[in-house]
Batch of 3 targets.
Target 1
Amino acid sequence: MVVSIEKELLRVRRDILSNNVSYASVLVPLTFKEKSDVGVMATDGKYIYYSEEWMTDLYDEADLDYARKVMYVITMHELKHVLNCHHTRRGDRDPKGWNIATDFAINSDLIEECKKDIGYTAETIFYNMNALVDTNGQFRNDDGTFKSAEHIYSILKSNQEEDSDDYTMPMPDPDGDPDGDSMPLDSSSFGEVTDFTDGDGNPVEANSDEIAEEQQRISDAIITAKQQMKGIGDDSGYARMSALQEAQSTPVDFSTSVAQHLTFKYSTENDMSFHRPNRRLMHTGVYYPSNKPSHSGVLAIGFDISGSVSHQERCLQAEALENVLKSFPQIEKVKVCYINTIVQRIKNKDDDDFNADDYWDEFDLVSGEEIDVRDLSGGGTRVDPFFNLIEETQHEVFPDCAIYFTDGYVNSDREDNPPQFPVLWATTDHTGCTPKFAECVQVDVNNL
């Protein structure tokens, strides 16, 4: 069968983007490039290299529809390497073992993703091409998620025989024999990942500024794509981006993450804004958009004061946040409240009548006020009172978005009734309880 290799490569790119618009910011800059010493495909984060000989044989020997699906699967595999920064994370590890480890880290989930995109033929392709798939769950964590490529590599190295360049994996033995057969491992038949290269095609030194910049570029693209998927209501795309963000081995700096979150919010102009609901119609129980400008200039902050986050940590978080806000003149006012089992009343009142306004400390950034964090502590950990308070307060202008500082050990009962404003979940510890409606960033209080 005579086909145009160039046209087929354009086709596979178009098909992937049609099914996964969230990958556009990473896939589009990747250029296909023919390379004679590549077995199937490979990527260094700048190019997706391919063997023209392999592609020609594929289209000559296979049905056209099957060949195109093979191209889809292999290109997705290379894209996943880049999205997971496998081209920047090898360090001084053996390239062969690193390729094997990274394949195990992505292929099992990739099968399911490709099945959704192109049907059950995808699974056949994985096995026909001897892709490395963890069918026995040897590289899964207790919660079902896959271990990082670094962790898988360490397991493979521990199984490697002394003075051998080969990698093996124990085969399941029905008789429980610990000295049963081992399966040799090879990733070269299903596409590979190489080290990140500079403009001249030379591998970039590990831990260099160039590596850090590339990792940040990928992280920025993932965070932006998450926000875009949330904005258009693409739950599947949002879930994929969330999983990729969680798999990133290099934690994103707190200040950078907050800046990215606010940049997306303040770079999105809408004629009608659900972040500033029409309060005249809120008694109906339904949020209607307001025709007012989408930016109110108000940021709401909630501090967990249940005892698990210290006053010193809250002060450090506030200081770091103030530094970020200097780059956002759109934010003119910060409103702070303190959260435990109930919202802590922060102003002295002689009566017990509820007045939501009494629960806020306000700081006018325009006049130069600094965020002064109160030394309050006590009660159990809760988060929903914060969201409820925002909605029940008769704000002069409704907050654009909210940041909740916590240690993360708190669940929300509002998954089916999410707040109608963006929420950044800034946790000093646990991330597993992050509500689906919130954007999570892990805060290292020692590196603020």
Note: The domain at 5-206 is CATH 3.30.2010.10 (Zincin-like).
Target 2
Amino acid sequence: MQFRRLTCITAISLFAGLTSPLWLAAQASQKNHQPPKYYVFNLGDPLGGATEAVGINDLGWISGGGNLTGNTTVHAVLWAGSPFDLGTLGGPNSNVSWPNHSNRGEIVGIGETSDMNPLGEAWSCSAFFFGPDGYICRGFAWQDGVMSELPTLGGYDGYAAGVNNEGKVVGWAENTVHDPTCSGSQVLQFEAVVWGPKLNQMTQLPPFPPDPDSAATAINDKGQVVGISGLCSVAVGGASAEHALLWENGVPTNLGNLGGGAWNTPVAINNQGVIVGFANTSGDENAPLSPAGFIWTKENGMQEIFPLADDTNDIAFDINERGQVVGQSFTSSSARAFLYQDGVATDLNSLILPGSSLYLTLAQGINDRGEIVGTATDINTQASVAFLAVPVFDGSGNPEAASKMTGEDNSRKGILTEGLRKQLPGFSRLALASAGSK
């Protein structure tokens, strides 16, 4: 394992060195307000089934989830020189479902243990696996080849979503309170937590008053945490996300909404304190998911990122230090990845250079070099695979000239068949299963 780890780090360091000119050119590109063109690489289906790349850090480490052959079980996957299975906590499933950015070699996510939940709770993890299967689910932190289980607040289940470069992990965990605002199979109350920097250190973050429940979804290097609070509900969005929150020094601030009373969910925050995510634009806390992407700044509050032309919904998933945002724009039957830069959303497929057989359906992670990862459909095989998109510039490093390079016309929508939809992992399946009209 040690030799494998050193090999991976050497490969990553070499890749980072080779791409540093692209980082400088990408900075120039933003100053010129020109979205770059991209080379797109197929990361394949390393575990045999549909695959989703979720996050990418500045070392080039890519994390996500890969279905095993048959598309009924998913494991967390790390691409670091080559892809490998991170394993589970003893149960059948694990996943990385939120963008990871830490450059310390730490990956966080969720994994099932070998124990069954005596309360029969479906818990938050079920939406990122293949539905409830009865196993207890916990957050994990993976480092140096070891997956460590994170403690809860006394209850059975937990969830790890994000980690910063200080080794602090955020997520949510059950306590022992039987919460009367829970519904469905959910029984126990859950609260936003910060683990670390040591894994056995745990701090609870308060919900926004008078909400009883909360969850943390991302943390930046300044220790600012974003997440949600609301009712216990079913522990998967909805009424649990009545309020989108920013915690600073443990104090929650309501970020507002786009007109809806549910699904108000921050997904990522950069070190400038700019936040992106999704929210309903109408309806009360019982409204079904019909998301609109948003970007929040202290100066302007929450502003909607509108879907691409003819689409009904969108989700903003990640933001880098230069303010580039990636996400997904979709209808109930189609989806496409987008890049949002300087107030303009662009279909990422329209920026691909010739030679790729991939149609990019979901962009979920972006690093500070502007490299993007997500999920794509291989138009030759109809397989769902992970992708890496690398910005490219002309030989002189001129981003404006590079932006005029001719690509294929891939701006059409990618139609999702019912068979392909059932194979999609994580957020892809969750969003598209509930997509509605705005």
Note: The longest strand covers residues 107-116.
Target 3
Amino acid sequence: MVDRSSAVVPRVLFSRCLGYEACRFNGGIVQDPTVERLKDFVEAETVCPEVEIGLGIPRKPIRLVGSPTAPRLVQLETGRDVTDAMKTYASDHLGGLDAPDGFVLKYASPSCGPRDVRCYVNDQRGAAFAKTQGLFGEAVTQRFPHCPVEDEGRLKNFDIRQHFFTHARFRKARTSGKMHDLVGFHTRHKLLLLAYSEKHFRELGRVVANEAHVPPADVFTAYADDLHAATGRAPRRTSAINVLQHAFGYVSDRLTREEKAFFLDTITQYRSRRVPLSVPTSLLRSWIIRFEVTYLADQVYFEPFPRGLIEVLDSGKGRTLG
């Protein structure tokens, strides 16, 4: 089986404090093993918006204050309001990025946080708060609505981690501008897309078919919209079982009765949450190799990102599907 995921290297922007530099407000650094391993497989760029707008290391902490829909970014101990400076920096920096494939931003950071950032109703200690995005994190999601934007904690989920590589492969096909490359992308990702959503899988198929004969650029745009929608939530366990049974149909007639029964029992065990998805998936992969099933061997579903990353991070656990 060919490791096709190694053919592309995702371009990922990281919060600089995630293992790159001790630039937290207290002069600290965040050492996350998942982020550390991912670095070996991507083209990384880093950013610390708070340092870039002149707050220094270490620095007095900042917080979001006011309405969660239009908060101010304030350094409480000095009274300094850096809202406009942060928004200007975010616009300038993100405008210069070269086709990123994703972002890994510091969880709950008032500048970088893509979600779950506290926004306090006022600048008093113990004030009530709501959850929103950091100002830089919000700018990222607005400028790059189709890009995976995650924090370091969510990367522990197999299906979230693979988004960077899927996006990079799509970016490569889109850069060519050729329908042939989009058809190839869709063909190799069929099982992966089916695992996310049968509805979106069918819609993506109609987009690729392009029965209205619209220009390729418009087809790529429509495909990007549906691809983002399809991968917007984690795959369901029932969808994974559907994919396993579909793939099993390509090899079942070459298996013994005992092998068939064992595989079906493994699916039952997975359905009951007694074994991880990696168990039935590994069985299928062994038969794909044994019987040289080209169609399945070409499916990204079985190797969504480089093997080294899978072996280190997912051994014994498999995908964390709900």
Note: Residues 88 and 319 are 39 Å apart (CA to CA).
